Amino acid sequence: MSFPPPVNRMEQRSTSGDLLSKDSNTSTWETTITAPNGSINTNSSYCHITFQTTIYLSFVFILVGIAGNATVMWLLGFRMRRNAFSVYILNLAVADFLFLSFQFVYCLYLVIYIFYYINDTTYVSFYFLLFSFVVTRFTYFSGMNILSAISVERCLSVLWPIWYHCQRPRHTSAVTCALIWALSLLLSLLEGVACGLLFNSIDNFWCQTSNYLTDSWLIALFVVLSVSSLTLLVKIFCGSQRIPVTRLFVIIVLTVLFFLIFGLPFGFSFLLDKLLRSFPFLKTCDVFVIVLLSCVNSCANPIIYFLVGSISHRRFQRKSLKLFLQRALQDTPEEEEDRERDS
Question: Positions of the region Disordered (predicted)?
């Protein structure tokens, strides 16, 4: 899903409800809000204000997020030794960086397309939107899968610590991330409009099957994230054998929480895609807000890392970003860190 075409030029489109005449089976999010009978279902002024507000806010969060995730990628990739969880954090930063980078290009395309009335060809627009469709879902699936893997690994390390530290293969994180990237690419290619091009029809049996599999996978990941996070919280705050709170635990909980609040609506919009095709009056400009929330989610992760790493005994300390990130990924309580430094 990407930003739909702007409202102030929708009237120039076909009244068939399609963004482009290339394919009538284009995804809902890539259609206009013009109903099949040619009437506008959403107030134009509302859409125009919503678009302008959200796209400029998106630019701010995108630029901050790109800088933050690039810093995390540089530090974890070239300046720090990696452990099991830092490999996941590195790959999550790559996914967020790619997601935000492409959203920046697409927002810039929209601004030029709207405010400067640049005319483009139908085929250029169609294939650009198709590329947007695939890349956006690819990076979103990758981030959600990586975050789920982080939560599951953390649960395993807490529930069965001896088995986890003794039986876990050394390169589990790297292999898991490689499989996640491959799976995410496959899901993004075999879902929606991209599948329709591969099989010449979006109503093809294989496309319908892949759509259901993708939807089921998203729901399963949501369940995994919710259950694993709840398990960690229960293990810390309830029961006779409570585990100590570490910075790594705080990072995982906050990252999952931000995703459930800001990132999950983007994924649920995929599930609503079929419903919106059946009920055109539901096609509103609220999709702009959903994309803005997803940008906030990708922007928040590096801020969480550095913020948690900068706090010591509830005080902020002025040190290098590298040290902040190292401390943020440590899996030892703060009291033990202080004793180690004193010794």
Answer: 1-25
What domains are there in the chain, each with its CATH number? 7-335 (1.20.1070.10)
Helix pair angle (247-258, 205-237), 10° resolution: 140
Contacts of 310 (CB under 8 A, 6+ apart): 316, 317, 319, 324
**Total Cβ atoms within 10 A of residue 23:** 18
The identity of residue 267, as a single letter, is G
Which segments in the chain show pLDDT lower than 50? Answer: 1-42, 280-282, 338, 340-343
pTM of the complete model beyond 0.85: no
**Nearest CA to 189 among 96, 315, 70, 181?**
181
Contact call for residues 154 and 99 (beta carbons, < 8 A): no
Dist. CA 53–CA 269, nearest whole Å: 20
Which candidate, 135, 100, 129, 99, places its Cα nearest to that of 113? 129
Report yes or no: 79 and 328 within 8 Å, Cβ to Cβ.
no
Give the angle 120-106-123 at the CA atoms, nearest 5°.
Answer: 30
Tokens standing for residue 296: 């906030």
Q: Taking a C-beta distance cutoff of 8 angstroms, is the pair 102, 130 a contact?
A: no
Residue 246's SS3 state is coil
User: For residues 8 and 26, what is the distance between their CA atoms, to the nearest angstrom?
Assistant: 21
**Predicted confidence (pLDDT) per residue in 29-44, tens digit:** 333 333 333 333 445 6
